[in-house]
Amino acid sequence: MNPEVLVSVRDLHVSFGAVEAVRGLSFDVRKGEVLAVVGESGAGKSLTARALLGMPPRQASVTGSIQMGPYELVGAPRSVRAALWGRQLALVPQDALSALSPVHRVADQLATAVRSVDGVSRKEARARAVAALEEVGIPADRTRAYPHEFSGGMRQRAVIAMALLHSPALVIADEPTTAQDQETQRRLLDLLTHRTEATGTTLVLITHDLPMVRDHADRVLVMYAGRLAEEGPVEEVFTRPRAPYTAGLLASAPLQGRGELRNQPRRTHGIRLPLIPGTPPNPTNLPPGCAFAPRCPLADATRCATAHPEPETRNNRTVACHHWRKLPSNSAELFLESA
Ligand SMILES: Nc1ncnc2c1ncn2[C@@H]1O[C@H](COP(=O)(O)OP(=O)(O)OP(=O)(O)O)[C@@H](O)[C@H]1O
Ligand SMILES: [Mg+2]
Questions:
Q1: Angle between helices 122-135 and 106-117 (to 10 degrees)
Q2: What is the pTM of this model?
């Protein structure tokens, strides 16, 4: 494996009986990066995250390969997953309240987590817990509180501290801030990316918030209907998307302001907000060719309607589209017209 690669995912499938929700996904997570995973609801982002964490839903069947250093995570026995958990892999969940026990003090919960991995004394564990909480901005005199005595933002800080306790190699954050107001979201994301950078931790960030991706991620993986639509450095993908799906997603996102992007449609004549027409397909009833074809302004009735486009990689960019060369540089306008 390339030494810059932390996790290598190849031909990942996650299915529930005959229904395939993730359908042959391949990508790498590189050491030290922030990799954003985006795509409309139902694209398979959370299932991919859970496969990476070695904790897919009980009813799911997972095939393919997820290689992390010497470990193969697909089908790994519980002992391997337990050895990796906390030290190598950790999750920042969406819902901090349900991730914390309501009946134990916050610092005690972190201290227990410290002792579950490192067999240190109670006193030492407690000191480490308090220090970890201080690092995310929770003052020592508040660490004896119970979770319900914290604000939502503070609870989310506490679960970030918990995830980073053992400086894991990889942290996966699945919509970690969506329960908070905009300003709190932004501060939590700043905190999460600063802390992971400080600890040399790689971050996979799943989010619907494209401005956050622009401001915080190094690379972005765009998923559609369980497959890769496009992948590459954020700056390149956001300024010049290659997959029509990415172009539509970007065109519909509020990306004005900080570091405005060329690809945004002109809003001078105002009220026509571009949107991708239609909705993502139901995984029980997928179109036969490219899953995006029914919504795509470039789709034709021959190739796109019949054959799924295989991902092609060149110069750091991967795209799965029969017609990516035809996508104009002002691609957002395509969706303005069709909206
Ligand atoms: N336990 C399950 N049993 C059956 N189907 C499931 C299960 N979990 C997820 N799915 C289906 O798999 C598909 C992908 O789900 P997933 O949760 O990964 O989407 P997502 O991209 O995370 O969406 P969102 O942005 O809404 O969180 C969806 O169609 C979903 O209904
Ligand atoms: Mg999800």
A1: 120
A2: 0.92
